[in-house]
Amino acid sequence: MRIAVYPGSFDPITNGHLDIIRRASRLYDKLIIGVLNNTSKSPLFTAEERKAMIDEAIVGISNVSCDVFSGLLVDFAKQNGASVIVKGLRTVADFEYEFQMALLNKALNPEYETMFMMTNTKYSYISSSMIKEVAKYNGELDGLVPHNVILKIKDKLQREF
Ligand code: COA
User: Fold this and answer.
1) Which of 2, 8, 30, 117 is most buried, judged by most C-beta within 10 A?
2) Which CATH fold topology does 3-160 show?
């Protein structure tokens, strides 16, 4: 069975992420989305909230599931029996950092391969920070994030400010 993990912060999940998830789900028997419970970033949503938004967005994609993880990505991959790490590349700017992470993960555990997928051009300019920025100033989020995320982000920002 070919199992892959797709890791990230997903604060929140965007249509760019979802596009990668849909396409990767066709290449592997099972795709497990790993939501990093990161201590270095100060996320808007808790890891559990980020997972809940992803769970709603992936309804109907039968071979995809989502879990929260902390610690090393290679350990999360191992716990899930995965042999592949899927990452999306948006622009050349992503490349250097992603290349470094792929090499580090390979050094940590040579069994894992990182597979890069080019983000669909219509989503290449989206990032989670930009989504939060647009939402903060009441900008239109239709088409940029899944519909359930629009409601959650508006609700969250109303509570914050
Ligand atoms: N569409 C839209 N946005 C995308 C995207 C896509 N296809 N792919 C990436 N992004 C954006 C994210 O929205 C995020 O935007 P932001 O910076 O505005 O929040 C940005 O790219 C970075 O993504 P993020 O998921 O936050 O982090 P990352 O890709 O740099 O790496 C992990 C996250 C989880 C893979 C990495 O930190 C990790 O493996 N951590 C575990 C610890 C570990 O093993 N460390 C050693 C190896 S690095």
Assistant:
1) 8
2) Rossmann fold (3.40.50)
